Amino acid sequence: MLHLGTAVWLMIGAMSVVKSRMLSQFIDAQYQTLKDNALPKMEQLGAWDVIIFISGTTDIQSAFPKGSIIMKTILIAMGILAATAASAFAAEPAKMMDTKMGKVLVNEKSMTLYTFDKDAKGKSNCDQDCLKMWPAFHTDGKAKAAGEWSIVKASDGKDMWAYSGKPLYTYSKDMKSGDTNGDGVGGVWHMAK
After folding, report:
1. Would the pTM of this model clear 0.90, i.e. be above it?
2. Does residue 132 surpass a pLDDT of 70?
3. Among 51, 68, 133, 175, which has the highest number of CB atoms less than 10 A from its own CB?
């Protein structure tokens, strides 16, 4: 995630190279694309307030005349910052939920997730028959590993989520949100926490 100081230095760096003709042409082309999408996002972030304050004026039009290279450069830098910030806050594949057994990890349908003691770190050992009772917590196919979250192959060949290297499963006998019927089954299945 970019910090405000980093964003300011990016804008200063971008402004220092606007003299380049190629960059100017690029900025003109990108300005039209970004202005409709970036302006509302910048207003939500309060970015215009920062620019107005730094410029010492009372409004954005006075700070940067319409169509100026500086204005276009700032719009592009802010658009990049908004896009980067949005990706940094991407939702995790599971969330914590309170159950009668305490806090546990649950999927998007609020079904409890479990770990299997016979799995190796980063490898699922739940075979095809096992997956019938313990369905893998599959990814959406476009997922990317981040932080404690990684992606491993289930025995059905599909990608599944792992947390701290432990593959995650649901339990077919959990019927409703918050059920924890799979905890302790066979002494090898445990709620993910």
Report:
1. no
2. yes
3. 51
